[in-house]
Write a sequence for this structure.
């Protein structure tokens, strides 16, 4: 994938959609492109977060450990962004992300992520929106589980 294709990919992610083209190029250029085979971990629950990931291609599962074993809580695919909670809050990873097929991902380091947030306050607003959507979805799932 070329730099221009990566810029277009980033432009389709709500978190980055309002960034200038030059900043998207910088993000695409400075992020690390990684490939994971099916079964490999992008990140592991409990590890300290040092980066966030954008799924460029492939599918991954979001898994959490529980007393009864691993529970799948979400699926990830093209354009999904994951791992930001650990780098935003300086907490251990809240879940494991495992490739279900061959996954190509852009790894955005914590330092780069915070530089972007500082330079583009609108990005912080988009992060809050995304986290609020996730919280609402989790609350709905908990409500359903409690009703069942």
């Amino acid at each position: 994938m070329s730099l221009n294709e990566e810029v277009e990919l980033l432009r389709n992610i709500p978190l980055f959609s309002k960034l200038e083209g030059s900043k998207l190029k910088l993000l695409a250029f400075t992020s690390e492109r990684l490939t994971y085979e099916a079964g490999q971990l992008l990140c592991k629950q409990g590890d300290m977060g040092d980066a966030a990931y954008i799924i460029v291609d492939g599918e991954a599962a979001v898994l959490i450990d529980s007393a009864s074993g691993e529970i799948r809580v979400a699926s990830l695919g093209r354009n999904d962004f994951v791992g930001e909670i650990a780098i935003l809050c300086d907490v251990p990873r809240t879940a494991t992300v495992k490739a279900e097929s061959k996954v190509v991902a852009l790894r955005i380091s914590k330092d780069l992520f915070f530089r972007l947030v500082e330079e583009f306050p609108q990005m912080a607003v988009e992060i809050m929106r995304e986290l609020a959507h996730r919280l609402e979805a989790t609350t709905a799932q908990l409500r359903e589980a409690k009703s069942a």
Strands lie at 32-36, 41-43, 51-57, 60-66, 69-76, 81-82, 96-99, 103-109. The CA atoms of residues 40 and 99 lie 6 Å apart. The chain has one domain: 3-147.
